[in-house]
Design a protein that fits this description.
This protein has 20 helices and eleven strands. α8 packs across α9 and α11 packs across α13. By secondary structure, it is an alpha+beta fold.
Length: 568
């Protein structure tokens, strides 16, 4: 067939109706607006050769860096690599983050071609550090490329696009992670019913939304993702957001038909992710490609400007917390010397376990004992004098019953002085509480697990919440207030900002007669001025159960700092 010029990688037996070309055979337009209209209408959707020819025009029109590798570069670099090295010997680079090459009705040997193209791209674009969408995009473009070299050139132009305000592929972890946060913001605003379903059924909403790009570029059937690609190459990145939001809306409808309202049961986030993935992969049985795009473009008041503002805000929040690269936490272990590490509360193994919970940027620090009741006595003043100037700190408590609990505290205790003699809360959403004995469990800030509780970014000029106000707080403060149209949603970025969501953001407090960790309808930890007696209970900030006996006597208390062994 004539289409084989642009279909040498395609298994036409799997293409079904798409294998039979029909409709227009040419496109006579040069203006982007005309392409935009025709792309949304599916003008070339039923003609494989015409679609490939249109793509050639679109790729040539992408503004790129002066030095952008082309097909000749690929041929020079790869040479006869096709015959020399099988695909099994060419692993995908780490920056694809475990993504595999989708088959997309390709011949089995085409997967090997995708591996070779991606391997060459990795060598030519050394700044790429995170690009999970690359395998799917490469596999799609093989459909409409005459050979591997042409596919390489097309993907290169997407990666090298330098048009201001336009981006086609995320190439860093910072960009990708902030896009996941931005998708959460958009879902909360434009798909509230679907978002509430995810909140009700998943333990970790951010983990579910971290797959949003894979729903579109990876899980969608070829017939659907090809139509998305038509519009995406013309209109850019915002199309991916629109389509993913449409998929979320269809998923909610699917779940509503299968289960009566109010019957959702919270479950592991991985199971929710798997359920969405299965739905998207099988969407062809209920939703046509045109219906998917209609739903995507029916979302009103959705602008490129809003996306850009959200993306920049979320990137800034990540940068402020030092989260710019993906941390391989499984490979970062606290190297403790059992002969030199000495704690009367935890063993070296238990300290390593605690270290696996702390924020990534402190993972390579060494524990430094700042205060212990054994050496420094049971005095709150001495506690403050030894802990001030250190940030963050780790609080460990052993009770007279033998229970062990504690807290990771993100902020210097000196911050308490800003409230004068008034007991006022400070700290950030990185704080958490935990227990080690009788069983090990960590309780993070509730907003990380339920971002809808984040109501507003704190005004830097506002006063801290007084502890005396906490028992009488109106629980309506947990609800998200109305915001002016167009105002930025603080949704997932809430975990990276110091918010004042009243009783969901009461992290740590201290004055001359007590210290408190966690507030709102109770305290996760309360310790008196003699460091002798304590109380524990549920609090709304961490949504934790009592960490030990609700009223307890302290046998030992230690505070550990984080020593940067690289700084000299």
């Amino acid at each position: 067939m004539a289409e084989e010029d642009y279909g040498s990688f395609v298994d036409w037996n799997q293409m079904g109706e798409l294998a039979r070309s029909s409709g227009p055979t040419k496109v006579d337009c040069k203006e982007l607006k005309e392409f935009k209209q025709l792309a949304r209408q599916g003008h070339w959707a039923n003609n494989h050769k015409l679609r490939a020819q249109v793509y050639q025009q679109l790729f040539k029109a992408i503004p790129c860096r002066t030095v952008t590798p082309d097909a000749e570069v690929y041929r020079d670099l790869m040479g006869n690599a096709v015959t020399k090295k099988p695909s099994s010997a060419i692993p995908l680079p780490e920056f694809v983050d475990g993504s595999t090459v989708p088959h997309y009705c390709l011949k089995s040997e085409a997967v090997a071609s995708a591996h070779r193209v991606i391997s060459c791209l990795a060598g030519q674009f050394p700044d790429i550090s995170h690009c999970p969408a690359l395998p799917a995009v490469t596999a799609l473009l093989l459909h409409f490329s005459a050979d591997e070299a042409q596919c390489f050139e097309h993907v290169s132009r997407m990666l090298a696009c330098n048009e201001p305000g336009k981006r086609l592929l995320d190439q860093t972890f910072l960009a990708y992670e902030s896009s996941c946060m931005t998708f959460g913001d958009l879902a909360n605003k434009y798909c509230p019913s679907a978002h509430k379903l995810i909140v009700a059924t998943a333990n970790d909403v951010l983990e579910v939304y971290s797959d949003w790009q894979r729903w579109v570029l990876g899980d969608l059937p070829f017939s659907h993702v090809a139509r998305v690609l038509d519009v995406y190459l013309v209109e850019g990145y915002k199309v991916l957001y629109r389509v993913a939001l449409a998929l979320l809306k269809f998923y909610r409808k699917h779940k509503a038909q299968g289960r009566p309202a109010g019957q959702q049961q919270p479950q592991d986030s991985a199971r929710v992710k798997g359920d969405i993935q299965a739905f998207v992969k099988g969407i062809g049985s209920t939703v046509t490609p045109d219906k998917l795009l209609d739903k995507a473009f029916s979302i009103r008041l959705f602008s490129r400007k809003e996306i850009t503002l959200l993306q920049l805000t979320n990137e800034k929040s990540l940068q402020q917390k030092g989260i710019t690269v993906k941390q391989k936490r499984r490979n970062v272990q606290l190297a403790l010397n059992p002969d030199t590490f000495s704690s009367e509360i935890v063993s070296a193994k238990e300290m390593r376990d605690i270290w696996s919970w702390i924020p990534e940027r402190f993972a390579l620090c060494q524990p430094q004992l700042l205060f212990t009741t054994t050496n420094h006595g049971c005095s709150l003043n001495r506690f403050y004098s030894h802990c001030e100037g250190y940030e963050p700190t780790l609080l460990l408590i052993r009770t007279t019953d033998g229970d062990v609990c504690g807290a990771f505290l993100s902020t210097d205790w000196e911050e308490r002085k800003r409230g004068g003699n008034k007991l006022s809360f400070f700290g950030t959403g990185e704080c958490f509480v935990f227990r080690l004995k009788p069983e090990m469990e960590r309780y993070e800030w509730v907003v990380i697990r339920h971002p809808e509780l984040a109501s507003a970014i704190k005004d830097p000029g506002s006063e801290d919440v007084s502890a005396s106000e906490a028992p009488n707080m109106d629980t309506n403060n947990l609800l998200q207030p109305e915001r002016p149209a167009g105002d930025l949603s603080p949704f997932l970025s809430a975990r990276h900002f110091n918010l004042n969501s009243k009783n969901t953001s009461m992290f740590m407090a201290g004055n001359f007669d007590s210290i408190i960790v966690g507030g709102g309808e109770g305290n996760a930890l309360y310790i008196d001025s003699e460091l002798n007696h304590g109380r524990t209970g549920r609090c709304t900030t961490f949504d934790n159960p009592p960490l030990c006996a609700e009223s307890f006597q302290i046998s030992l208390l230690e505070v550990w700092g984080f020593q940067d062994t690289m700084a000299t």
